[in-house]
Amino acid sequence: MASKAAEQRNRVQTALDRVRHQIGLVLGAAAGAREMAEAEVARLTLEQEIVRVGMDHATPAQQTEWARHPAAHEVFAALGGTRAAFYTDWSAGPGQLRDLVAAHAPGPAGRPPSEWLGRVGTNPGVTAPALWRVGSATAAGSDISRTFDVAVPLLDESHLAITSAPKTRPVVDGIVQGLLMRVLSAFEPGAVKIHLWDVGQLTAILPDLYPLSRTSALSLYDPTRLEDLLDELAGHIRRIHATGMQAGHTSLRELRKATNQRLEPYRIAVLYGNGETLDAERARDLKRVASGALAAGICLILVDVPTAVSASIETLSLLDERRAVSSMTGSDLVVDLDPPMPSGQVIRAANRIAEALIARQGGPRSFADLMPSEIGQESSARELRAPIGFYEGEAVEVVIGDASPHALIGGPSGSGKTNFLYALLGSLAARYSPDELALYLLDFKEGVSFAGLAPGRKDSSWLPHAKLVGVNVNTDREFGLALLRFLADELRRRSAAAKEHEVTNLADLREQDPSGHWPRIVAVIDEFQYLFAGRDQVTAQATQLLEDIARRGRSQGIHLVLASQDVAGIEAFWGKPAVFEQCTLRIAMPKARRVLAETNNAAVSAPKWHAVINHDSGVAHGNQLAHVPDASSRNVFVNLQQKLWELYAGRFTRPRLFDGAHSPVLEQFPAFTELKPNAQPRAILGQSIDVTEAACGVDLPRVPGRNVAVLGGATAEALSIMDSAARSLSRQMELGQVEFLLHCPIVASSPAVLDLKSRLEAEGHLATLTEDLSAELESIVESLSTTTPRILLLYGVDAALPSLEAKAVGQLKSGLDHLRTLLKNGPAHGVHTIGWWRSIARLKDTLGFGGTDDIGAWAALDVQGNELSPFAAGQVVHWSPRPGRALFFDRTTHGAPEVIIPFQRPETEPTAGGTS
Ligand SMILES: Nc1ncnc2c1ncn2[C@@H]1O[C@H](COP(=O)(O)OP(=O)(O)OP(=O)(O)O)[C@@H](O)[C@H]1O
Q: Whose CA, among 67, 606, 658, 754, lies 20 to 30 Å from 222?
């Protein structure tokens, strides 16, 4: 039993010993691993320490301590190896950096000031240096070959944030001033604008640059009004974005490259803060400006302005008065800042630049300065762009395109609107050929402001871009309507073509249809408020058409330029804001009301012969003031027109001139002179008020109702209508095919009737002037089925009525009965009556109870619209009689009556309301 227990204990003992042995082994291994790990940590810590301090920068005490470290030898060997490898590569580094800065910071951008300070720059600003020097840095090891230039990107590359150290403001000023002088001296005067704002002071910011503050190159802002500066910059950004980038470019830099022009100055805004965060609203504005600025060529230099700007920004943080660290070199390298440029030399240089700028801006510019170096070289595929004036020597442009498709121009009488229009038309016409730009010009003002653009008596030249010139249309609002209809039709035509080519805008259409003729159309309507000068159909239709064109014209290249003395007074316009809203280009002459946004008072303070150009619907930030050169005095525009005419007239037709003050002359009217005998004669009554030079007339086929009535007492107009009707018919009838029968009981009109008779006879026709109308009518009625076709020209039927009504003894029918029979049955047998009744009541008497159907067409003169209703299928007729115009209606062709212009008879000018 005992031995059994001992055996058992032994077995346990042996097992325990085995376990102990195993544990001992494991513990030993763990201790070894730990020792190794600790040694590794110690080694890494040492390595980290050495890297942090720098192998060559340790103090002797530190060196000794490091040497004592067990891993010292190994760590020094490894780091030494790495450093040697790095410096093998880096040995070329400083040299490469020097070359890089030399290449990207040429001349004043990177060279020492002694080489350029005081000289006026020559770079026109189409491209800009990418880097601007601030100092130098030296890579570890202090030999000179390791020193390289440190430069920062500015302008459209990057913003710059500078953080000062205590008592370093003069140093910061030196850096900022140095950078600004480098930029100002690199470019030609006027290419750079500097904006200075300092939270702490108004006047003493960078005083050495003050000579520039008498020019537009330097502006200072109120310390309490950072918003003014930010608003202004935001305005530039929006404007540059709107006008520039619509041409398909995303930045001003691209646009400069594409056009090879500077277009806008570079802008640098320096903001001095005090290290405190801006209030939330300003910080937001600043952030917004910063993010759009670079694409608009605007760069911010922020000194002690803590801000989270998301745009590209480099930093320079001062360590002390000589040194800084920069994001350009990383935090391990110290930048040795360049010493400030000598104050006296900076002042002298600033003075020179200011003087050069003033000399360059010169005195007031002239129309000739608006002209391009080469005529007609621009393409209008994307937009129209033309300078119309100057501000501080810089050209101010008007852009008509996608972002600003239509323009609204306002200014009181004499403020220079017409002159502005001439400057605009001249500048456009000189840049774009008539293949690129077609002009439709309408002036509702009394006078002849656009008349010179069409060929005239004194000057046979015309503006080849003009397709239509309408002058003196103040009483012919219908002509404005006709133009709008024409534009709406053209809009439809262009939309259809765009659809066919599966494109949505003019630029693409022109690309897809290179052989098509798709110029941009600009329709100028001066004093356009006349279109809305009544509560009538014309106003309603004009409003609707304008709205349609304004909305859809943009994509089809049809643009409106609407000018008015008093935009404020146009009721219909304000009631229909669509047109107004589409006019995003606003041009306010001095003292113009309501053209700009309500809170924008720029027009109030605009000096004489200036205009405020605003591409942003009149919001203040879009304001651009421009002096508009004299374009309208003698020989200014005319000379350009003559030049363009000589260049293009052979290829383009002359514009149609519509002059509301002059009635057309029948003998000069193509629709009359081209008439030839034909089977469907048409009596011409007058000229249509239309964009094309069209006649309006009445077809006289052998069908009932084809008689014509001339209504009203206006003698000259009535005689003219009778005359042109008869003479146009005579030209279309073979000799012997027709007889003209004339009757005129009005003594005063007899000479005109005799004159017509002899003209008809001179053409070889049979024309009889009868005294006894009743007898003639009776004989025609009796032989109606066999008679030769006849045209009865009855003057003053109202005066003939008493004798027509009289019945001879024993006769059953009077002359009036015969007349009624002829009006009813004559046309079907080729006997048509063209009669003049001086009052509608007498016409009704003539027709009796038979209704009005026998009068198929009429031309009304001085009669009331409401009297005409029965003759116009019962519709309400709006008609304000006016001299030299008639209201014309033909049942078979007209939905509603139209206004026409009777011809001017050679010996008698139409006179106002003349009666016999
Ligand atoms: N920029 C300018 N420089 C010199 N003279 C100018 C300028 N603008 C206009 N004028 C002159 O001022 C006068 C009036 O100008 P304009 O006819 O253009 O004004 P408006 O606003 O069209 O006036 P209205 O509506 O009465 O015709 C004209 O004799 C014109 O020659």
A: 606
